[in-house]
Amino acid sequence: MAKSKTPAKRARIAEANRLRNKAQKSRIKTAIKGFEAALANNDVESAQAKLLEATSLIDKSVSKGVLHKNTAARKKSALAIKFNNLNQAN
């Protein structure tokens, strides 16, 4: 643990940020799993709604500094490709 006040405060802030980032990443992963479950059921309408939700969460995480913008772009692109493959199959 830090010996003086300033490093101790930085440690507390870093821990709070780590927990917030962890929660945000968990929400993103849950949204992506919901989208993939809708894809597995061939439910186009539900998949589209889940895609919008996941994309929105990913974009918000970039603005909050949880994800890098290129990581977010890669995740969104992969989700869009999966959704488009479902549309072409139907």
The domain tally reads: 1
Global shape? elongated
What percent of residues adopt helix (DSSP H or I)? Answer: over 70%
Strand content: under 5%
The overall average pLDDT, rounded, is 94
Q: What's the gyration radius in Å? A: 18 Å
Number of helices: 3
Distance between the termini: 58 Å
Q: Determine and state the CATH class.
A: Mainly Alpha
Please tell me the CATH architecture by its name. Answer: Up-down Bundle
Give the CATH topology: Methane Monooxygenase Hydroxylase, Chain G, domain 1
- Name the CATH homologous superfamily: Ribosomal protein S20
The main pleated sheet reads as: none
- The SSE order reads HHH
Low-confidence runs (pLDDT<50, min 5 residues)? Answer: none
- Derived from helix and strand composition plus strand pairing, the structural class reads mainly alpha
Structure at a glance:
With 90 residues, the chain is mostly helical.
Task: Give your account of this protein's structure.
With 90 residues, the protein is mainly alpha-helical. The chain has a single domain (5-89), classed as Ribosomal protein S20 (Methane Monooxygenase Hydroxylase, Chain G, domain 1, Up-down Bundle), CATH 1.20.58.110. The chain contains 3 helices and no strands.
What topology emerges from the helices and strands here?
Layout: H1 5-40, H2 44-63, H3 69-89
Which labels suit this protein?
90 residues, mainly alpha, Methane Monooxygenase Hydroxylase, Chain G, domain 1, 86% helix
